[in-house]
Amino acid sequence: MRILDLTHTITESMSVYPGTEPPVLSVPCTIALDGYTETLLHLYSHTGTHMDAPAHMIAGGLTLERFPPEQFVGSAFVIDCSALGAGACIDLSLIEKELEAAKRADFLLFRTGWDKKWGTNAYFGDFPCISSALADFIVSTGKKGIGLDVISVDPINSKTMENHMRILSGGKTVIIENLRDLEKVGKKPFTLVAAPLKFESSDGAPTRVLALMD
Q1: Are 7 and 193 within 8 A, CB to CB?
Q2: What is the tally of structural domains in the chain?
Q3: CATH number for the domain including 21?
Q4: What is the domain extent for residue 60?
């Protein structure tokens, strides 16, 4: 079995959503002074590669720690959208030729290639976004989750967060943002493990995302 890590490493200099404080990783305890090392993490729940719970946008919505563990493991399939330009729409036409595989997958991931801009100002630019019809498809086909290699399922300047609302209002689908290296997965279905940090009332959480390849 080959395992691919689709997760950005959390660093103090990493890309964060505009207006969000970057993480701080301090080391209050060291081997030299205390006999052990321990790191103090100060970060927002939607830092780095992370998962959005329904509670992120929906009042009274389900929080991540209340989902059963099987929510975070399942079959996955990547739709290649890397030919799209800035500001393009990821719509249903892009999955029509892979429709059966897309329908069978528990998680549908979209590779735009935008992750190669990670760590630059361009990452916050006019990245491709899914259409409202595609968001509805994700919910109507009972997906456990949708994932993208961009910072949001909505445009960076969105005020209504329409795609978030459409997907999360169903209460059964999570959103994974800031994935990386989806081109390494290939064109075959695989098993996805997306394990969010478990804490009380989690509207979202940093998530280690792994692709398990046969």
Answers
A1: no
A2: 1
A3: 3.50.30.50
A4: 2-213
Reduced to 3 states (helix: H, G, I; strand: E, B; else coil), residue 211 is strand
| 8 A C-beta contact, residue 147 and residue 105 | no
**DSSP, residue by residue, 121-184:** GGGGS---EE-HHHHHHHHHTT-SEEEESSS-SS-TT-SS-HHHHHHHTTSS-EEEESB--GGG
Give the tens place of pLDDT for each residue, 13-64: 999 999 999 999 999 999 999 999 999 999 999 999 999 999 999 999 999 9
In the chain, the percentage of residues whose pLDDT exceeds 90 is 99
pLDDT band, residue 97 (cuts 50/70/90)? confident
pLDDT tens digits for 180-193?
A: 999 999 999 999 99
Closest to 178 (Cα-Cα) out of 46, 19, 41? 46
CA-only gyration radius of the chain, Å: 17
Contact of 152 with 182, CB cutoff 8 Å? no
Dig out the tokens for 36 from the structure. 């052990």
- Report the distance separating Cα 206 and Cα 54, nearest Å: 15
Q: What is the structure's pLDDT at 153?
A: 98
Q: For tokens 């590779």, what's the residue?
A: 111
